[in-house]
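From: lab user (bench 3)
To: helpdesk
Subject: output format question, protein + flavin-adenine dinucleotide

Hello, I'm new to running complex predictions and I'm not sure whether the block I got back is the full result or only part of it. Here's what I submitted:
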Amino acid sequence: TSVNQEEFDVVVVGGGPGGSTLATLVAMAGHRVLILEKESFPRYQIGESLLPSTVHGVCRLIGVTDELAKAGFTHKLGGTFRWGARDEPWTFSFSVSRKTAGSTSYAYQVERMKFDQILLDNARRKGVEVRERCAVNDVVEDDGKVVGVTYTDADGTVRQAGARYVVDASGNTGRLHRHVGGTREYSDFFRSLALFGYFENGKRLPAPRSGNILSVAFGSGWFWYIPLSDTLTSVGAVVRREDADKIQGDPETALMKLVAESPLISEYLKDATRVTTGEYGKLRVRKDYSYTNTKFWKPGMVLVGDAACFVDPVFSSGVHLATYSALLAARSINSVLAGEIGETAAFSEFENRYRREYSVFYEFLMSFYDMHVDEDSYFWQAKKVTSSTRGELESFVELVAGISAEEFDLSDAESVALRFKKRSAEFADAVGELSGPEEGGDMKPLFKSSVVRQAMEQGTQEQTRAILGVGADAPMFPGGLVPSGDGLRWAVPDTD
Ligand code: FAD
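Helpdesk reply: Thanks, we reran it on our side. This is the complete output you should expect:
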């Protein structure tokens, strides 16, 4: 039996990066949001290498930049690859792109138990009701429209929560996505299995690249080698479906045999010991088959992150696609709830942009698995699939930084932030002068707060515009929408 029907504007299923980002952005627009998360955080998840678009774009919008900076995550300046026809490893740096040049030319390598916790706690602080150990069982429909969910809470009681939108952010194992209709189509091309674990005291690339992800192709597939701290490394072997038998049997033996196939990874792990206790002590296997659902939404329900689609992990696009789709879906929900944009227009914009980003990675990755060419050919492909007007290397870096959509321009986000800081200090001084020097004096609190608020709002809009980039004024698709000034909604573009 279900008890206590509660009503929310939005119920989000899953508190991973997709779910907590979406919930935060909807709560910031003043709506009542509930996250139902079946696990108790911190919980383990793979997907540790992030992109600048997530760290400096979406994470800045939801307000966790400072907290992430304080968390001590490894700085990832780019990627180093032993990949393609040449034996020599090659490296790309995020700083090559003028859109991430300077202070935003890095991302983080994160322990997901810490990163996801920061995002979920931030959602709570921004007003989201978060309930852990609550597993959603089903969605509730009324006349073809999704109107809520049923879930089992921590005490085993079955409950129902009503919502104007249900967001499925339950990751790759959930089944709720079926309620939007359509099918989940698996790629014939990307069908691999990953076997992964953690090591202490593995070798590091020489500075300043010691925080780079190292990706190494070998006979049966490729390795990721991700430095999570000075001493802890995440190591995973991704093997093709045809070689699946290589990860059968005892996982320890299997992993060590695969390591032995790669001279470079063997060298990096020569003096390392595998972690054998705690969450990092387990060796895990995951299918990383790529898939995409043919439908991403229906009235009252929308899919974000792995619940909607997943593409091969070689360029670490998973968390980027989860947080970016969360931003797009949040804008659609906020616009519809505010009565500003019709549901079909708002969610078509979400789906078009999301599919575009997914297919850029998908198409590029197809050519990246051609091992008979060298890196210049990969750079050329990146320019082709993004239709970029920039140089080949720069197009490649923008694609793999998650900023090819002209939506994020991180280059002057920092300088705008500084300008804003300076200006709000000027305002504060001006207000201080008006209200007299003495402490507490005869301040006019109303006046003070409204001026400061205005300055803050303007500053926030300016910062957001900088983060959202130069292309934000023009629609991405003919007849489409553009992000609003505060980044939280869609707007109809100016036609003059
Ligand atoms: P998740 O992070 O999976 O979160 C979903 C949440 O929903 C979970 O907390 C789960 O407990 C909860 N949930 C599930 N069902 C229910 C339910 N019924 N009720 C309530 N809660 C529920 N990405 C990267 O960015 N970088 C990488 O380096 C990278 N490497 C990868 C390597 C491999 C081998 C694989 C397979 C993936 C990799 N990824 C990587 C992808 C990354 O793991 C995912 O894309 C990312 O975690 C998706 O985030 P999400 O928020 O959509 O889902």
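A quick orientation on your result: Residues 430-449 have pLDDT under 50 and may be disordered. Let us know if anything else is unclear.
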